Amino acid sequence: MAERKFPSTRLRRSRSKGFLRDLVAEHKLSSDDLIQPLFVSEQKESQIDIPSMPNVYRHNLDSLYSEIESLLKADIKSVAIFPAIDSDKKNAEASHAFDQKNIVCEALQGISKRFPEIITIADVALDPYTDHGHDGLLVDGRIDNDQTLDLLSRQALILAEAGADIIAPSDMMDGRVKIIRDALEANNFVDTIILSYAAKYASSFYGPFRDAVGSAASLGKDSKKTYQMNFANMDEALHEVEMDINEGADIVMIKPGTAYLDVVHAVKSKFQVPTFVYQVSGEYSMLSLSIEKGWLDKNVMLESLVCCKRAGADAILTYAAKQISSELNS
Fold it and tell me: Less Cβ crowding at N or C end of the chain, within 10 Å?
């Protein structure tokens, strides 16, 4: 009988038991990696379902504060606030964005007072406030980049004054990080962090989010392809990130997330700066609905987020933050 030759290396050895798999895991997810996006609105109802986003709600202020209490119990320490603005407060100039008593400013002030340990991220973009649904000013049918910059710097300053720890410009106008950084520095907000949506793609994955904030109806069949990135491009993403870092961004973000992990990996590898990723509404809803239908195991959500970490993300904005954090800590 011929002598059998056994492999000297058996990679299955370290997979044989659960604790061994955990022991040699190269990447791990914790509650510290997760940021919960929250929608807030001036509404009588405490919370309103968002049909296209399972288990996600639009809150009034009381409900928002209750949700943050729940998030703290789940060990979530960071939230990103997004407004749903009543249609009668929207116009072409997005003037309600500069009202220091708007719902976002009220929410930031309330969170800062009630939950000083929570890190708040405030979105800088005009689309929730414009009646046309775009992130900038429309002039003769096109977005005027430079006029929009002046408004974004005003909006960023108002949000910083309201207590935002992190200012997150998501508009994709050229030069917006520099003008926001200059405005913050000139007004003594030297410690306010800029989280730049540096590589934000013109993606079809944003549909449920636009339902949540009410910009879908305003935007109609129009698109944002003249300022958000072409999803075919990688080199352009690296160029965008480099520009934003040079203009004063402290953290950069790639959006969407799960479908763009090659971009996350390339950005983290090249620049070695804090790099966040946004598992956007469409990505979240696809997984959530598949879990509800029984088409996918519930662990697919955790798997998707660990993959974001593996790609190089330092933190992840995900609507599943509370759920996954509770699972991790149970």
Answer: N
